[in-house]
Amino acid sequence: MAGDEGRPTGRRRPGPTTERGLDRVVNFSDAVVAIAITLIILPLVDLAQEHDDGSVVAFFGHNWTGLAAAALSFVVIANFWRDHHRLFERTAGYSTRLVTLNFVWLAGIVFLPLPTVLLFDGTGDDRGAPTLYIATMLVSMVAVRLQQVVVERDGLLSEEAAAAPRQPWVLVWFPTGLMLLAGVLAATVPGLGAQALYLLLLSIPIGWIGSRRHRADPGS
Predict the structure, then answer these.
(1) In the prediction, which pLDDT does 10 show?
(2) Which residues are within 8 A (CB) of 101 and not within 5 positions of it... i.e. 6 or more apart?
(3) What does the alpha-carbon distance between residue 200 and residue 35 come to, in Å, rounded to a whole number?
């Protein structure tokens, strides 16, 4: 049937799933991320225009916190986009639930630069800024993981992705659990702040070990 064009095989929730519709979802998401990244640097451009001292060294010295916050925001947003891109590369359709979760993910991306600036401008005793920063990242992490759940359960995977072995859910959600723990520690332990994010380093060896075991025994 003509209305089935662009639909992957498998269990499917009712709703529009044309390839054109999926492309619009992806293109809109990419545009929002691109605008969010662009807006990170605009305040610094204004500061550069207002900078009276002609020394570049002086400008960087006076505005190093803003520059560091902009750089960190760029890196974090770029990594979130890469995770989002990998998911939608494996997706052949969409549903209302997927689009709703995608808006939640985008909200976290757009909001992220604000707590990043607060993090760099805050004091070591301020638990609010690092907690808000981690909570904002947690929103985007949970949203993209839930999108992955929806894609698989609603039968929205492409045929190639559906046939490929998948990581165990414990490995998929492990970094998100570490982020949640980091947020709790940042909110409750005085003076810890964003250093709680070092917990995320644990996801590297755990993911590596888990991936090796999964490749050796795909049925595990």
Answers:
(1) 44
(2) 143, 144, 146, 147, 150
(3) 27
Nearest-5° angle of CA 56, CA 57, CA 61?
120
CA distance linking residue 137 with residue 146, whole number of Å: 14
Residue among 32, 20, 44, 157 at smallest CA distance from 98: 157
Give the 3-state secondary structure of residue 166: coil
Measured CA to CA, the distance from residue 102 to residue 143 in angstroms comes to: 7
Return the beta strands (E) in 7-83 as ranges.
none
Q: What are the residue boundaries of the structural domains of the chain, listed by start? A: 13-211
**151-187: per-residue pLDDT in tens?**
999 889 998 888 887 777 888 888 899 999 999 999 9
Q: What is the 3-state secondary structure (H, E, C) of 80-120?
A: HHHHHHHHHHCECCCCHHHHHHHHHHHHHHHHCHHHHHHHH
* Torsional sign, CA 28, 30, 34, 39: positive
For residues 220 and 164, is the Cβ–Cβ distance under 8 A? no
| pLDDT tens readout for residues 38-93 | 888 887 777 777 767 667 887 778 777 778 888 888 989 999 999 999 999 999 99
Q: pLDDT, tens digit, for every residue of 98-145?
A: 999 999 999 999 999 888 888 877 766 788 989 999 999 999 999 999
Q: Where are the alpha helices (DSSP H) in the chain?
A: 19-50, 56-62, 64-89, 96-111, 113-121, 128-153, 159-163, 169-188, 203-216
pTM over 0.90: no
Distance CA 173, CA 161 (A): 19
